[in-house]
Amino acid sequence: MIGLVVSGHLNFASGMASAVRAIAGEQENMVFLDFIETISPDELEQQMRCAMQAMPCEQVVFLTDLPGGTPCNRAMAIMMENPSVEVLSGVSLPMIVNAAFEREGVTAKELISILREIGVSSIQDLREQLSILSEFEDEEDGL
Predict the structure, then answer these.
(1) Residue 5 contacts by C-beta under 8 Å, 6 or more apart in sequence?
(2) What's the CATH number where 93 sits?
(3) Which of 29, 53, 95, 100 could disulfide-link to 3, CB 3.0 to 4.6 Å?
């Protein structure tokens, strides 16, 4: 099993934690770390390192909110020191939930690839989707 550390600005991680628990239930080896105003970037990195070390996992994937933001940058610093760590940034709830479900029997690199596909496919223009459905229904009514 791949360990997961979700981190982001303000209450991003804790918000995702409550949503993940509601959808997927309580998760082993999945930690949520908020980067709030009262902690420094160094403190966040220390929390990330502690979370990673507390997991009995051979590989860890950091899932962060904003590419180039402090949580991403601090996770990247850890990744640069450790070949068993990967970082995916710009994550959304569908990606995080699926990370919980898809992390068995794959490598961290494979999980990253799966999550990137989910991220792209979960972005949908619903007006466009309704238009496509409407066109399909119009064809069904024809001869």
Answers:
(1) 30, 31, 32, 33, 48, 51, 52, 60, 61, 62, 63, 75
(2) 3.40.50.510
(3) 29
Global pTM value: 0.91
Q: Which amino acid is at 33?
A: L
Q: How confident is the model at residue 137 (pLDDT cuts 50, 70, 90)?
A: confident
R_g of the chain, CA atoms, integer Å = 18
pLDDT tens digits, 40-61: 999 999 999 999 999 999 999 9
Could you give the number of structural domains in the chain?
1
d(CA 141, CA 106): 45
Q: Note down the domain range covering 74.
A: 3-141
For 72, residues 6+ apart whose C-beta sits below 8 A from its C-beta are 64, 65, 66, 87, 89
* Average of per-residue pLDDT across 118-123: 96
